[in-house]
Each structure stands twice: as structure tokens, then as C-alpha cells.
Amino acid sequence: MSAKTAFVTSAGKGLGHAMVLSLARAGWNVSFTYGESAEEARQLVEQVQREGGSAFAIYCDLFDRTSVLQAITAAKAQFASIDALVHNFGPFVFERKPLADYDEDMWQRMMHGNLTNFFWLYTELIHDMRSRRFGRLITVGYDGAGEARGWRFRAAYAAAKAGLAALTRSVAREERAYGITANMVCPGDIRGGDKMKMFEDVAGELTEEGLRPPVGEDIARAVTWLCHPDSQEVNGTVLEVTGAREILARDALTTNRAGLQK
Fold first, then answer.
1. What secondary structure, in 3-state letters, does the chain show?
2. What confidence score (pLDDT) does residue 148 get?
3. What pLDDT, in 10s, does the model give residues 128-185?
4. How many CB atoms lie within 10 A of CB 65?
5. Cα angle: 78, vertex 79, 80; to 5 degrees
6. How far apart are CA 56 and CA 101, in angstroms?
């Protein structure tokens, strides 16, 4: 595959970190944004370069349209074009909070962070992708987003991601004639530092089930596959990479136990 360029949002650490590594190892040039993780972003660029790849880190406030557009301009100045958008960013409220306790600002941040900023990125990139008759758009959801599955105490997040799933599928139908695909990847229960890990980082480790622990590369390799030029017929899909684990059920069980402990 001739070198193409991917733009990954929020990739200084977390799942985005693994996505950058996976794409770079597959031969992509990668521009990525970071917020508060400047040092992690610097180290990621250095790792990609040591492995013979090309990566470019860009500070960006993904809640601010001007900052988003400036990041795209910087990425194009570095690599000339953007062939794939991986929209990894999406604010999540870790505190289990009923929707009735949300204020206007919390609601708006959830909608803007998951939906509106994808719209900004999409409208800025899509015309160039159409002109080249190639493009890959990847969004990130949660287990059940494609079914608009309800999530207790995560209602705003669930609503935003379900909306993003519908938006992704709609874009796939609108852009398919231009050689552009749009798909969503839904991660499983990958926590903390495991989100940044690759398979080699957990070689020899086993879970209580006797399986390799799920890590960021599980999601990243799905993203890389969806970005491949030969993946054109995988379009408008919501791909769950969960190991068939009951993510929402586990979250509900944790919530119930926490309530009993109180």
C-alpha cells in the first residue's frame, strides 16, 4: 500500500495511542491530536519514528471549532492530505450520574464532544476525499451503540454515541459512490493503561479465564483493517470488539454493588 495519511483524534494516550501505532506499523503516515498529554504524545511520535514510521502530534481543543480546523490545517501542511479520519475522541463521565442531575453545560459537552466535533471534521475533510475518490471514516462507540441500547446512569453518553452510530451509517450511504466508507468500532471493557498496550506488552499474561488480556491493539487492529483500501465493502457497519463480554451488565452490577455498600 502506498503511504496514505490518517488523522486520529485524542491519541496522546488511551485507545488512540494504540491506533496510531497500529496504523503507522501498517504503513500509514499519522497525524494525531492531544490535549493534556503532551509528554505522552512526544513519546509516541518518537516510538513511531524509531520503528521507521511517520507521526505528527498536534495540540487541539476538540471542543473548539477553530482549534479543530487549525489542527486539520497543520496535518495537511505536514503530510499534504488526509485519507482517513479516526474520530477516537468522546468525553465520558466516569461518575455514574442520572440524567436528571445533568446541567446544561454537561449535556452540551457530551453532545459537542461526541457528535458536533465529528461534524466539524467531516465537513472539512469530505470534499478532498471525494476529489480523490477515496476516504475512510471511523468513529468509536460503546457496546450496544448500534442498537441504541440504553445505559443506566450513562444516558447522555449513550444518546450521543447512538446518534453517532446513526450518523456514521448515514454518511456511509451518502459517500459510498465516492469510494468513501464510514464505520464505527465499539470497544469492550479495556481499562486504564491497558488501553495503550499492544499484544507484545502482555505476552504471556492470562486472565482468570485463561485468555490474553484485552488491550488497545484489539481495537486498533480493527481500525487499521477498516482503513485498508481493500475494505471498501465493509461500509456502514458497527463492529463490536468486546470478546462477547457483557459490558453493560457488568457496569450495572458494579453500580448495584456500590449502592448496597453505601
1. CCCCEEEECCCCCCHHHHHHHHHHHCCCEEEEEECCCHHHHHHHHHHHHHCCCEEEEEECCCCCHHHHHHHHHHHHHHHCCCCEEEECCCCCCCCCCCHHHCCHHHHHHHHHHHHHHHHHHHHHHHHHHHHHCCEEEEEECCCCHHHCCCCCCCHHHHHHHHHHHHHHHHHHHHHHHHCEEEEEEEECCCCHHHHHCCHHHHCCCCCCCCCCCCCHHHHHHHHHHHHCHHHCCCCCCEEEECCCCCHHHHHHHHHHHHHHHC
2. 83
3. 999 999 999 999 999 988 888 888 988 999 999 999 999 999 999 999 999 999 999 9
4. 16
5. 105
6. 40
C-alpha closest to that of 236 among 182, 160, 177, 187: 182
How far is residue 130's CA from residue 64's CA, in Å, rounded to a whole number?
A: 25
pLDDT tens, position by position, 201-238: 999 999 888 999 999 999 999 999 999 999 999 999 99
Grid look-up 440504553 returns 150
Checking 99-108 for CB contacts under 8 A at 24+ apart, the result is: 99/155, 99/156, 102/156, 106/156, 107/156
